[in-house]
Design brief:
two-stranded parallel ribbon, 13 helices, Rossmann fold, 277 residues, globular, seven-stranded parallel beta sheet
Amino acid sequence: MGIFGFGTKRSHHADAVITGAGSGIGAAFATELARRGGRIVCSDIDEGAARKTADAIVADGGRALALRCDVTDADEMGLLAQEAQSWFDGPPTLVINNAGVGAGGSMIGDTDLTDWNWVLNINLWGPIHGCHVFAPILRDAGRPAGIINVASAAAFGALPGMAAYNVSKAGTLSLSETLAAEMTGTDVNVTVLCPTFVKTNIVDSGRISVKSTQLADQLMRWTGFSPERVAKTCLDTNDRGGLYCMPQPDARIVWGIKRFTPTVFTRAVGLTNGVTG
């Protein structure tokens, strides 16, 4: 792979490991990769949910294995890598660090530190553990491979009342950019997914205030993309060698404004506090 990342279609016939594959974007990634002829390790902290995704793939003629993994535990991530390589009889060719949770609705200083720790342990340490364990495996394999880290437009959106979530996703964005730089000249392409609203159950499974939950539900219905559409777009981006995947136009608009007028953007976002608080 050259300096600009163009190369093989890694999403086709991939040996893929996906965290948070029990629902939402993770399940959509698993289903789409199976449709593209891949073998999928579906991992989730909820083993039953992972098995449901894997069973659906197998029932449709695909190949999948369900494994439990708590992404906050580095040892469990290492065990996931071992079990995946045993099942594949070799290293994976695609790793998707997708597991995540939502949180929001209170200001910095009002958010309980247990919520901070909960969000950062899953949303940031999960991808860190995934990259720490799998990046050397993929790099040393010496063949075309990919890593996708699921962040969010919240990584650069700075929406008030979402500090823990924003920080976790900003960290994932930076992690991905750094890893991409480190992988330059190798056959491993890194992509970071930064969507806005996706029609998943993350609001229901998160720690979000009632008012923020109602607003998020409305925005998901009005502007949200399906997880299937987001997964397909992101896999195609990784195939093209792209670093950033922002499926929705609003994410790309926010990204552009934030880059060119960061101070004005941040102050303007602050005016939304009365809506989201």
